[in-house]
DNA sequence: TAGATTGTTAATCGATTAACAATC
DNA sequence: TAGATTGTTAATCGATTAACAATC
């Protein structure tokens, strides 16, 4: 049953569930129903139950889901119960902004290295990390066991950076550059491009 | 036929087509087929033809699509042929990063005002704009005819900012805060949350 | 017990893809 | 003309939602 292929849509909702569950937990809420979750997250309760049921039977009939237990389970599913080291290339404003989110990610995922190709930026401190030159990327990624790479360089350099990440053995890449990057099948890429986001938003203006 | 409901998936692909078409145009490519586009963008050619066909007959059988003409058409569809003013609340690193993308957006969408609730930040210059206090938000948005609002404040403040935007009559909101904000039906919200993006990426690690 | 809510099956809905006549 | 490629219909695939027996 673990081998069942889970759709990307399901995986994308899990972090959203998790975030709200954490909020409930901080408010000392013990239990939550798919009804409650659906209302708050604007999702269909049946969908939430089905999403969770792909991974196990986490709820109790007549009661709902234990908040603490469900948090634990979703964290396991998303592999957030282990430390995951992340490296970032592109020490601009965006790179800086992302680095500062470290605190939010609660020590599970952590940006442990920052690189940039521009000589002027080498050595600058970003969130307690010294910006390193690209020449140190592969060695550093091996040494720190970095598994995820974040790209925050201009579009023209994104593919090169992706290639370096792949060479270094990174397993997944989050690309903020407004360009589609090509990587081998075994590397997972997500695109987080706010320009396309803004442009599609414009469509909905009157 | 213009009244046909276009799915969100289609609208999200249009900016991606546009971006690549602009690239082709800069390389002086005259014509492109759905085949070419599909290969480069990793999409099914039939899907691309169908997406475009929702809005008109933009191609020529046996030839493909005229790059310049298709750019023009997609820009019209996305309303990028008109000036759209954007306001941003949250003058942190992320807000600063987004403001700097103005150049990229080529004068169509333009961030014309930046606000922050923190007194220390008022008056600071971000990309030639003085950060304004929240008390000036509604007046400024009216005066500058701002139609889109961007939220780059911490999660706890995002809903308040959204409420202010709605009061000011903004038509659409792009929310970067890791929380789901509620707005009236007539206001469109897109969520661009990189923490959930990173967390779902973790799922695909081995 | 009665009420609530899960897990899951079946029904529905919507999106993607294949196929091909039309035609440049 | 022959080859290429569109626009579009039909087929397929997948995701969402409704419904409900099981059960806390």
From TrEMBL, chains A, B:
The keyword NAD applies. This is Redox-sensing transcriptional repressor Rex. NCBIfam families: PRK05472.1-3, PRK05472.2-1, PRK05472.2-2, PRK05472.2-3, PRK05472.2-4, PRK05472.2-5. GO terms for cellular component: cytoplasm. It is found in: Cytoplasm. It comes from the Bacteria. Residues 16-55 bind DNA. Belongs to the transcriptional regulatory Rex family. GO terms for biological process: negative regulation of DNA-templated transcription; response to redox state. Residues 79-180 form the CoA-binding domain. Keywords: Cytoplasm, DNA-binding, NAD, Repressor, Transcription, Transcription regulation. Homodimer. It comes from Paenibacillus contaminans. Modulates transcription in response to changes in cellular NADH/NAD(+) redox state. NAD(+) binds at residues 90-95. Pfam families: CoA_binding (PF02629), Put_DNA-bind_N (PF06971). InterPro entries: CoA-bd, NAD(P)-bd_dom_sf, Rex_actinobacterial-type, Rex_DNA-bd_C_dom, Tscrpt_rep_Rex, WH-like_DNA-bd_sf, WH_DNA-bd_sf. Signal peptide: none annotated. GO terms for molecular function: DNA binding; DNA-binding transcription factor activity. SUPFAM superfamilies: NAD(P)-binding Rossmann-fold domains (SSF51735), Winged helix' DNA-binding domain (SSF46785).
């Amino acid at each position: 049953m673990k081998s069942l292929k889970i759709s990307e849509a399901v995986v994308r909702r899990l972090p959203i569930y998790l975030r709200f569950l954490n909020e409930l937990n901080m408010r000392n809420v013990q239990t939550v129903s798919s009804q409650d979750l659906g209302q708050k997250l604007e999702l269909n309760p049946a969908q939430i139950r089905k999403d969770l049921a792909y991974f196990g039977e986490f709820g109790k009939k007549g009661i709902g889901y234990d908040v603490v237990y469900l948090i634990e389970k979703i964290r396991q599913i998303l592999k957030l119960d282990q430390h995951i080291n992340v490296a970032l290339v592109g020490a601009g404003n965006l790179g800086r902004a992302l680095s500062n989110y470290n605190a939010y990610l609660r020590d599970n995922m952590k940006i442990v290295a920052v690189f940039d190709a521009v000589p002027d930026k080498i050595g600058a401190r970003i969130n307690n990390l010294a910006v390193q030159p690209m020449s140190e990327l592969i060695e550093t990624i091996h040494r720190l066991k970095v598994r995820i790479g974040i790209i925050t360089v201009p579009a023209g350099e994104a593919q090169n950076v992706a290639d370096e990440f792949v060479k270094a053995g990174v397993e997944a890449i989050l690309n903020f550059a407004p360009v589609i990057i090509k990587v081998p099948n075994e590397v997972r890429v997500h695109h987080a491009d706010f320009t396309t986001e803004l442009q599609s938003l414009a469509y909905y203006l009157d």
